UniProtKB/TrEMBL annotation:
Statement: the UniProt record of this protein carries the keyword DNA-binding: yes
Start and end residues of each HTH luxR-type domain: 148-213
Protein name (record): DNA-binding response regulator
Listed PROSITE patterns: HTH_LUXR_1, HTH_LUXR_2, RESPONSE_REGULATORY
Residues with 4-aspartylphosphate modification: 54
UniProt-listed GO biological process terms: phosphorelay signal transduction system; regulation of DNA-templated transcription
Domain of life: Bacteria
Stretches assigned to the Response regulatory domain: 3-119
Gene Ontology MF terms: DNA binding
Keywords: DNA-binding, Phosphoprotein, Transcription, Transcription regulation
InterPro entries per the UniProt record, alphabetical: CheY-like_superfamily, NreC/VraR/RcsB-like_REC, Sig_transdc_resp-reg_C-effctor, Sig_transdc_resp-reg_receiver, Tscrpt_reg_LuxR_C, WalR-like
Source organism (scientific name): Actinophytocola xanthii
Record keyword Phosphoprotein present: yes
C-alpha cells in the first residue's frame, strides 16, 4: 500500500483526484490539505510515501511546501501535480527536491506511474515535461558552448595551445616538455588563461576547453 498526502486548494479538483486514486487498491490517501502550510504539517504528522502537491496554493505555495517537506520529511517523495508547465516552475520544483512533475491534463496512467516511481525512490516526469526539460538542457549546452568558444577565441594562439593540453589533463611539466619551454612559462600562461576565461582553477578551464571543442 502506498500512502499518499493530497494537497490541492480546489475542493472539486481534490475530490476528482481522490476518486481517480481510489480506483487503484494500491493507493491510500491518508491526508488531504487545502494549502501548502497544512500540507507540510500533515506530511510531518503522517509521513506518507508520497506527497502529491499542487503548485498554486494559498498560505504557502506548492513549491515552497515541496522544499520544506523534502527538508523535514526526507522519506516522503514529493510529486508535483499542476496545470502549469512553464520552465521556471519545472526547474523550481526539481531544485526544491521534488522527485516528479505531472500535468493535470495528463493521462491518469501517468499519475499512477509517477506515484509508484516516486514511492520507490525514483524520479518521474510526464512525457510533456520531460520533453521541455530535455529541450532546456540542450539550449543550456548550446549557450555554454557558445560562451566557451567566444572566450577561447579571445586567447592568443599559444594560450589556446596550452589550454588544449590542460584540457587533456596534462600537468605543467608535461606541457612544458611538449611545447619546449620551461615550466615557469607554462605557469604564467595558465594563470593568464584562468583569468581570461573567468574561471577559478584548472578543472574549470578544462571544462571550457571541452565545451569549446579544443579537446
Amino acid at each position: 500500500m502506498i500512502r499518499i498526502l493530497l494537497a490541492e486548494d480546489e475542493p472539486l479538483t481534490r475530490a476528482g483526484i481522490r476518486a481517480v486514486l481510489s480506483g487503484d487498491p494500491e493507493f491510500e490517501v491518508v491526508a488531504e490539505a487545502g494549502n501548502g502550510r497544512e500540507a507540510v504539517e500533515l506530511a510531518r504528522a503522517h509521513r506518507p510515501e508520497v506527497a502529491l502537491l499542487d503548485i498554486v496554493m494559498p498560505v504557502l505555495d506548492g513549491l515552497t511546501a515541496a522544499a520544506e517537506i523534502t527538508r523535514t520529511v526526507p522519506e516522503t517523495g514529493v510529486l508535483m501535480l499542476t496545470t502549469f508547465s512553464a520552465d521556471e516552475h519545472i526547474a523550481a520544483a526539481l531544485d526544491g527536491g521534488a522527485r516528479g512533475f505531472l500535468l493535470k491534463s495528463g493521462d491518469p496512467r501517468e499519475l499512477f506511474a509517477g506515484i509508484r516511481a516516486v514511492a520507490g525512490g525514483a524520479a518521474f516526469l510526464s512525457p510533456t515535461v520531460a520533453h521541455r526539460v530535455i529541450q532546456q538542457v540542450k539550449a543550456d549546452r548550446l549557450t555554454s558552448a557558445a560562451r566557451a568558444r567566444r572566450l577561447v577565441g579571445e586567447l592568443t594562439p599559444r594560450e589556446r595551445e596550452v589550454l588544449a593540453l590542460v584540457g587533456a589533463g596534462l600537468p605543467n611539466a608535461e606541457i612544458a616538455r611538449r611545447l619546449h619551454v620551461v615550466e615557469g612559462t607554462v605557469k604564467v600562461f595558465v594563470t593568464s588563461i584562468l583569468r581570461r576565461l573567468e574561471v577559478a582553477n584548472r578543472v574549470q578551464a578544462a571544462i571550457v576547453a571541452h565545451e569549446a571543442g579544443l579537446v
